[in-house]
Amino acid sequence: MKFEVLTIFPEIIECYIKHGVVGKALNKGIAEVKIYNLRDFTSDKHKKVDDYPYGGGAGMVMQIEPFYKAIMHVKEDKKPKKLLLLSPQGRKFMQKLAQEFIEENKGMVLICGRYEGIDERVKAFVDEEVSVGDYVLSGGELAALVIIDSIVRLIPGALGDELSAVEDSFMKGLLDYPHYTRPEDFKGMKVPEVLLSGDHKKIALWRKRQALKNTLKNRPDLLKNLSRDDMKILKELCSEINKKILEGVYEPVNN
Length: 255
Ligand code: ADE
What we know:
Blueprint: E1 2-7, H1 10-17, H2 20-28, E2 32-37, E3 50-51, E4 61-62, H3 64-75, E5 81-92, H4 95-104, E6 107-112, E7 117-118, E8 128-131, H5 141-152, H6 163-167, E9 185-186, E10 189-190, H7 200-218, H8 228-246
Parallel strand pairs: 1-2, 1-6, 4-7, 5-6, 5-8
Antiparallel strand pairs: 3-4, 9-10
Bound molecules: adenine.
């Protein structure tokens, strides 16, 4: 899978992609990242990419021309590509979208803005605006890396163990279960007994229960379309919590 990144800070992308899962995927040749510096697509000698906003106001706005020229350049090879503009105003990027993108199996062009914003007219040349969350970053580079990393993990062969991506949080619609490794006892904090039992059925059940518990605590909005078995575990968890409330385990806070 090929990713092309348009940015004025190529070093940010270059640095990250050398490491970890993405770095390995690039070395194996199952993913490719090509970075274009938007300043190379400017026509003035100072390689200026921004200007004052029409209508006034604080900050600078990135000009359309470098984006337009860079976009025309990446389109020259006529290969199917999805052009994504990274911005907090875009469709929220989630695991489901990562899966959709990988299934589409097209190249991806990730367009990073900076400063106060970019000229609105750039949007006419992209397929979609994508946000990585409801917060404002100083630029699209981190968002582009989030997208590259999460998609590369899904490329067959990118992870050492093929099962790992399937086991990732969100892949099965739930948050992850807790993980432990040696030592068995760290300052009195013990690894749950069941994980030492060697009973794989029991371990799988414990992990499912923990995943449901984590999801109930932190992301109850994800508890949709549960199987009959998962629903049964969830009901048990809820009645345990209910019992604790009735026993007065949880104290009210004064506010
Ligand atoms: N650029 C700035 N903030 C962003 C966000 N939340 N998602 C994608 N691109 C961004």
